[in-house]
């Protein structure tokens, strides 16, 4: 059923793979699923999603795992590479009627061993706030569906805030909520706060403060996912119209846009230092976009179907320092940035140091991964020969399969398929490709990111008093999709590429079309990355990819959450666990 290592058949499911760091191995005994371990019939159901939180308990085993399968929601202690999963004892289990959970997010600021705040979005548009440790349901937002009747596609706590959260819907709208406020018994009335090309932001008109605090309208299609920048000041949104829109969440301004090669964009993530954004979607590509230069610097081709998740690996992203240097003023903000789980801070601070100057005293390689409906996991390296192609490089490396595509929003076109920096410590040592459009200048993205929270405070404080009370550390994840400056061709699932071309007329760069413009360069105009590895790891489409310190977590639509031990981490498991577990099965 599964093949160890490479396997002879392309269709065999892999249970291990090797990169330059070493061997990654599937831990079959660390697989999480429904207690009966029966594959879930996923026809017509929402994607399986996974959320993690660390409750910092005294036992040293503070990781908690939440995942949805069909109408069910589970909450477990996550033992990772340390011990086998015990599926017989979920901390909490919920079964919903008439609607299905679609997404969820923990508040990492308030989590303790006694209480966690978990937001759950639903297919009918509601958002529930629950505490799976206390087994309490505290609040239900949009209960009567008066705010939005469409499916919730993404829900996240605003970084640094204990009470603010952002919700995206398939209607193309996003709403900012405060858990302390109610939603009202009638449909909300809105007042325009700011309008831009293909986007508008409204405040809620009411005598007393009520939810939603803000309503974002972006483009014309479903808003599939959004992600806050590491410092919480910018918001990257991807939509069914094929556009990436990056907003300054504080000032409600559009920072930049990018269009897919064709079809909708389904997923988005930021590099740990906030300099690059990677997207994936229906064009089967991963696209690396420079936050500083607002342009595509690389594309990666390895998937044979839609890309469902992209994520950076902060633990493999490497930095090599040569000379001590001082941070620029706005870099101070990056010192406070925290990744999804407040880890890899040293790497992050070194990345921000790397980005505070144009002089390249630090060399960096970004690692990122992607999973798709083709059931494949791809890992990519984004190296300095792609990020800074104009810089003189000492040597050329020609490892076609060396992680070229770390696609973390790195500011330059992807790595040349034939010029991988296979050494993490010397990422920028290949000959620059003759692709001037794909070159990303090593300017500091920090300066852009560091000046926005105060603007947002001022802009929103006028219409929403609650925003004025947020500190910089409240990192308003409201990178709101702002005005999609160029093509706001938010196409529906059915309208995909044709819609995009129609909307292209709204593009500032080229009113006639986007293909061949900086908004959507042609394939030959930017470096094409090849995956470091591309392995089939499941029977059903993959919906989850999360990088943790000791492992990589993936999940497929059958409801199986798999743990892949990083090189050297398998030894953390007890021999008893390994002896009692079946070998080599993914499902």
Automatic annotation (TrEMBL):
Localization per record: Cytoplasm; Nucleus
UniProt name for this protein: WD repeat-containing protein 20
Regions of compositional bias (Low complexity) in chain numbering: 417-426
SUPFAM superfamilies, per the entry: WD40 repeat-like (SSF50978)
Matching PANTHER family: WD REPEAT PROTEIN, WD REPEAT-CONTAINING PROTEIN 20
Subunit structure: Interacts with USP12; promotes translocation of USP12/WDR20 to the plasma membrane. Component of the USP12/WDR20/WDR48 deubiquitinating complex. Interacts with USP46; contributes to the cytoplasmic localization of the USP46/WDR20 complex. Component of the USP12/DMWD/WDR48 deubiquitinating complex.
Keywords for the protein's UniProt record, in alphabetical order: Acetylation, Cytoplasm, Nucleus, Phosphoprotein, Repeat, WD repeat
Classification of source organism: Eukaryota, Metazoa, Chordata, Craniata, Vertebrata
């Amino acid at each position: 059923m599964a093949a160890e290592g490479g396997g002879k058949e392309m269709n065999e499911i892999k249970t291990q793979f090797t990169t330059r760091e070493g061997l990654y191995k599937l831990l079959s005994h660390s697989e999480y699923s429904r207690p009966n371990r029966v594959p879930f019939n996923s026809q017509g159901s929402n994607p399986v999603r996974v959320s993690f939180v660390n409750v910092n308990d005294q036992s040293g085993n503070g990781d908690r795992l939440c995942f949805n399968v069909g109408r069910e929601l589970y909450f477990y202690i996550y033992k990772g590479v340390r011990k086998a999963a015990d599926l017989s004892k979920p901390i909490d289990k919920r079964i919903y009627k008439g609607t299905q959970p679609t997404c969820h997010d923990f508040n990492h600021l308030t989590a303790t061993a006694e209480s966690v705040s978990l937001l759950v979005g639903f297919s009918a548009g509601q958002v529930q706030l629950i505490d799976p440790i206390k087994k309490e349901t505290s609040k239900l937002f949009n209960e009567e569906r008066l705010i939005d009747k469409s499916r919730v596609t993404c829900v996240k706590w605003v970084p640094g805030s204990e009470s603010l959260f952002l919700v995206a819907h398939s209607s193309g709208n996003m709403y900012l909520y405060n858990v302390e406020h109610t939603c009202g018994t009638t449909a909300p009335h809105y007042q325009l706060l700011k309008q831009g090309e293909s986007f508008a932001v409204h405040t809620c008109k009411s005598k007393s403060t009520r939810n939603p605090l803000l309503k974002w309208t972006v483009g014309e299609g479903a808003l599939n996912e959004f992600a806050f920048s590491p410092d919480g000041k910018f918001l990257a949104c991807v939509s069914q119209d094929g556009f990436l829109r990056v907003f300054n969440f504080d000032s409600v301004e559009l920072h930049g846009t990018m269009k897919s090669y064709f079809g909708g964009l389904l997923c988005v993530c930021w590099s740990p230092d906030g300099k690059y954004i990677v997207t994936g979607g229906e064009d089967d590509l991963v696209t690396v976009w420079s936050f500083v230069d607002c342009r595509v610097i690389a594309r990666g081709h390895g998937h044979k179907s839609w890309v469902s998740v992209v994520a950076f690996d902060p633990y493999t992203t490497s930095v090599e320092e040569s000379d001590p240097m001082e941070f620029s003023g706005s870099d101070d903000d990056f010192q406070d940035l925290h990744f999804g789980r407040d880890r890899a801070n040293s790497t992050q601070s070194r990345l921000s140091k790397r980005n505070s100057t144009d002089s390249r005293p630090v060399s960096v390689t970004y690692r990122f991964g992607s999973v798709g409906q083709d059931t494949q996991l791809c890992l990519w390296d984004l190296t300095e020969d792609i990020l800074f192609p104009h810089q003189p490089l000492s040597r050329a490396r020609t490892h076609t399969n060396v992680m070229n595509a770390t696609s973390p929003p790195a500011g330059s076109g992807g790595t040349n398929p034939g010029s991988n920096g296979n050494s993490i410590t010397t990422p920028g040592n290949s000959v620059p490709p003759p692709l001037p459009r794909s070159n990303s200048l090593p300017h500091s993205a920090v300066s852009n990111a560091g000046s926005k929270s105060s603007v947002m405070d001022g802009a929103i404080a006028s219409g929403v008093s609650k925003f004025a009370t947020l500190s910089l550390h409240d990192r308003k994840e409201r990178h709101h999709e702002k005005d999609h400056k160029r093509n706001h061709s938010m196409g529906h699932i059915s309208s995909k590429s044709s819609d995009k071309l129609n909307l292209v007329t709204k593009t500032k760069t080229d009113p006639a079309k986007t293909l061949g413009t900086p908004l959507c360069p042609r394939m030959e105009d930017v470096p094409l990355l090849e995956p470091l590895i591309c392995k089939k790891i499941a029977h059903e489409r993959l919906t989850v990819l999360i990088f943790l310190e000791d492992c990589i977590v993936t999940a497929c639509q059958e409801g199986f959450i798999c743990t892949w031990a990083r090189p050297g981490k398998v030894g953390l498991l007890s021999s008893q666990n390994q002896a009692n577990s079946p070998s080599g099965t993914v499902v």
